[in-house]
């Protein structure tokens, strides 16, 4: 209920540049920016698929492009972003799950996050091992 | 002036005010309710209550036992018929709170749990961790939202009652944000403005606990009853006065002097045992414990520190971190954050501070004020007669519910039987009140600073009306208060604005505080005996049932005069005044009483 | 007493009757080791300038009225200590993202009407008479909602949440946590009625999981958890409603 | 306040956002390393890891095809969903235009990938 008269104007402060105001927000923005890496990588994959469908020559062109220093550099940036992305994903993970109880005790958020880290490392090793298995 | 019409106006949206509002709404949904509070309801000081609310619950407990604990705890200055009603209604109110969602702590079987509390013979205190008041207040506030007939006036400062021809007709309030005056016309009014702990220096109360409602009723001729009885809580934080709940002791905490000795055994509360035992040692009543700490200080057996002054130790270490975190989480955090003390590893420094006003607006068992028709009061501002000379911990949260409901039901019935009065006459009274209040801001020639007067008042109350009192110190306080009332007329405000002028509101509150302080000091001076929380050192060390088994009644005599102190009878039904004994002596007395009953 | 030291407190003043825009004003306050920022402000109001305006009451971090930005972070001024902010200056400003009504006082009305809007009361799953005694609720069932019931409505989380800053219609962390508190209560059966709010753009979908709300919450309510776990509930509600004529609500 | 609350369609996008987020968090790092760094450098998996024949065979297999599709689909929706919200965060108006660019972009990427993957055949 609000029966407030006119005196109650209220000064509204601007939001411009809000994300620079607090280190927490900067971190959040960095997390959000990693989406660009995911997008770029999705596009690279998509282009690869397109080239693949166009035949060997086209696909080899795509492979050659991947070998340029510029591409390697870009992928290093993507790699770093993916790591940040993965970490931040699991950092926020406990916020997105219902409260969990094991043996009558609340599972701590940090436990969930750490589990996420571990699973990621295992998944990464698994992928690398698989690829190692089919290496040429 | 904007006017609102309601059937029932309730001043104060703490536990008592909210419970009353819901009671009116449930009694008759067609009645319109104005619920006025100077802060948003959930900021009310009920929020700070930690320990719990008493109601007979266990099979081996009885209403008689709760009745007896309360009456003896109050040193027989209780209205026994009212206490009887109170203990009888308590349990149902707890269940009602449960149905409304209050997160009471539970036993493994899903039933509500109860804990031990000072002065209570059997565990009967319902609790929600150590945030009982917080949970009760939020539950009541949130439940009140369900009722469309409750119209809230949040952040509206109630300035005065409108009383015409012996009947209350409404209230005048200031909308804080705009400084606009509002007349809220009502057929009946419930005052539920809480206590007045802020008249003292070291206290556990919030900044808003300034006795406004007491002063308003007082000024309209309603007597303030038993105002000399002010409770000191024994375990408060040095400097700030913040409370460490009695539940610390209920859970098994010890009080130690500087030698690490459980000194309470020297004050008739022993023997000292490891496990907490109801009505023994640390679970004795608050007045006794505070007095014992005072004596320890006189004997030089308290600890001292330049930051904290002299204090004793509250030892919770043996309870272990796990139990502390589970049962007393808020206490844990308070100690760590405010004092840098880890209660699982260190003793907590504590000292007594003012906590509760036993007295208040005189009210009969139906919460009605004498002399002003349609006026009711409930909660800490009210003296309905259950606390006597000393309140037992956890009785007051229950009181909010039981008598909040009674007030609501009664005020609703009164409103239904009465029409609204003539608006013009009421408006004129309201405009008078407005002129008086507005005058404070516009006054230019003053010289006194608000804070100076407030601090001198609080210091003087502590000096004169503290744990122990003498005629000389009380007289000095009375004189000081008279002086301060004169100087109060000469205050000057820095803030001249209309909207959000909190300095202005503080000035109005200071006026209330001074009136309440005077009622306390004069009632105290005139009570020439020692009873409950009123303890004298000047030849009146004993209880005097012949002359003073009476309620004191302070009557307002105008802005420049001291209040007149009169006395009224105490209702005794089944419990004749006896010795208030605790510890082994108490057990012995109980045994004797039983024998006598059987003989 | 230790040597009285002085600390500078800068207050963002806004007096709508005198000025159009907030301005900073400095005060020098003697302080002792256990003095809170609130006590610093009280000193200013008592001794230096009675017109400085702020809300407070309990002094013990439970009434929720004294929130403000202290050195840019939302905090309760009564439980923030000057000793931790040495050597100063300490900058205090009204809670971010809310309109300032005066000095350190922000508008609370909108927040309270949001709170009123979520039906923050038990809508019983099964009716029970008082004479039947209390509903049984095990400690485990209590734990499902207890932390969400300890919100003191201090609104620090709103001052921390940029999504609320960008869109004041967003129901916001504190109120959504309270909504979840009732949905998660074993006694309550009102979930279906509250899902409407959860499901809206102004409900949980206004949140981008910034998570700062939980970081600043003085009562460990973890509102970010309440909001984000309800995205799952809302998504279930969204997809499963096609399976049942009345809409899925569990 | 809740008189005119409308059900948000966010869940549709949020589910894809969540799937893509989880997938990229778990496998993104390894994939970028394998396809973008290890394969081009020929180390440590040898120079022919992504030879035309192998990749073609992989993407003709139902599993490889499905995997590639899921990656491109969910990654692009995940990313575009975030970017869309970041525009809002930066104060850039998020009207129909922004919506079309973001979610339309993700849709386009997904469609192209699906179409070409089908074109590659089984
Ligand atoms: C720290 C602490 C711990 C406690 N613990 C316990 C406990 O464990 N058990 C127990 O039984 N009791 C306890 N008590 C006592 C008990 O909490 C209080 O007596 C009780 O909460 C008072 O409630 P109330 O509704 O009367 O007043 P309050 O909750 O103080 O509410 C007063 C209301 O009146 C309004 N008001 C006041 N003046 C005006 C005005 N001029 N205009 C408009 N509105 C006004 C306020 O805004 C507020 O809404 C404790 C007290 C304290 C201080
Ligand atoms: S959730 Fe926490 S920060 Fe937000 S209002 Fe409640 S107590 Fe305050
Ligand atoms: S900060 Fe805001 S965006 Fe969500 S997680 Fe908290 S509500
Ligand atoms: S004054 Fe109550 S929370 Fe700070």
TrEMBL record, chain A:
The keyword Lyase does not apply. Keywords: Cell membrane, Membrane, Transmembrane, Transmembrane helix. The keyword Membrane applies. The chain crosses the membrane at residues 33-52, 72-90, 111-134. It holds the Pfam family Fumarate_red_C. One of its GO terms (cellular component) is membrane. InterPro entries: Fumarate_red_C, SQR/QFR_C/D. This is Fumarate reductase subunit C. It comes from Ramlibacter lithotrophicus.
UniProtKB/TrEMBL annotation, chain B:
Residues 454-582 form the Fumarate reductase/succinate dehydrogenase flavoprotein-like C-terminal domain. The keyword Membrane applies. Residues 588-599 have a biased composition (Basic and acidic residues). It comes from the Bacteria. It catalyses: a quinone + succinate = fumarate + a quinol; a menaquinone + succinate = a menaquinol + fumarate. Its cofactor is FAD. One of its GO terms (biological process) is fermentation. Its EC number is 1.3.5.1. The keyword Oxidoreductase applies. InterPro entries: FAD-dep_OxRdtase_2_FAD-bd, FAD/NAD-bd_sf, FRD_SDH_FAD_BS, Fum_R/Succ_DH_flav-like_C_sf, Fum_Rdtase/Succ_DH_flav-like_C, Fum_red_fp, SdhA/FrdA/AprA, Succ_DH/fumarate_Rdtase_cat_sf. Residues 576-599 are annotated as: Disordered. The active site is at 286 (proton acceptor). Keywords: Cell inner membrane, Cell membrane, Electron transport, FAD, Flavoprotein, Membrane, Nucleotide-binding, Oxidoreductase, Transport. One of its GO terms (cellular component) is plasma membrane. It is found in: Cell inner membrane. Part of an enzyme complex containing four subunits: a flavoprotein (FrdA), an iron-sulfur protein (FrdB), and two hydrophobic anchor proteins (FrdC and FrdD). Belongs to the FAD-dependent oxidoreductase 2 family. FRD/SDH subfamily. This is Fumarate reductase flavoprotein subunit. It comes from Ramlibacter lithotrophicus.
Automatic annotation (TrEMBL), chain C:
InterPro entries: 2Fe-2S_ferredoxin-like_sf, 2Fe-2S_ferredoxin-type, 2Fe2S_fd_BS, 4Fe4S_Fe-S-bd, 4Fe4S_Fe_S_CS, Beta-grasp_dom_sf, Helical_ferredxn, SDH/FRD_Iron-Sulfur. GO terms for biological process: respiratory electron transport chain; tricarboxylic acid cycle. Residues 141-171 form the 4Fe-4S ferredoxin-type domain. Transmembrane segments: none annotated. Its cofactor is [3Fe-4S] cluster; [4Fe-4S] cluster; [2Fe-2S] cluster. Its EC number is 1.3.5.1. GO terms for molecular function: 2 iron, 2 sulfur cluster binding; 3 iron, 4 sulfur cluster binding; 4 iron, 4 sulfur cluster binding; electron transfer activity; metal ion binding; succinate dehydrogenase (quinone) activity. The keyword Heme does not apply. It comes from the Bacteria. Pathway: Carbohydrate metabolism; tricarboxylic acid cycle; fumarate from succinate (bacterial route): step 1/1. Keywords: 2Fe-2S, 3Fe-4S, 4Fe-4S, Iron, Iron-sulfur, Metal-binding, Oxidoreductase, Tricarboxylic acid cycle. Belongs to the succinate dehydrogenase/fumarate reductase iron-sulfur protein family. Part of an enzyme complex containing three subunits: a flavoprotein (frdA), an iron-sulfur protein (frdB), and diheme cytochrome b (frdC). This is Succinate dehydrogenase iron-sulfur subunit.
From TrEMBL, chain D:
The chain crosses the membrane at residues 12-42, 62-80, 101-120. The keyword Transmembrane applies. One of its GO terms (biological process) is fumarate metabolic process. Pfam families: Fumarate_red_D (PF02313). The keyword Phosphoprotein does not apply. Keywords: Cell membrane, Membrane, Transmembrane, Transmembrane helix. GO terms for cellular component: membrane. HAMAP family: Fumarate_red_D. This is Fumarate reductase subunit FrdD. It comes from Ramlibacter lithotrophicus. The gene is frdD.
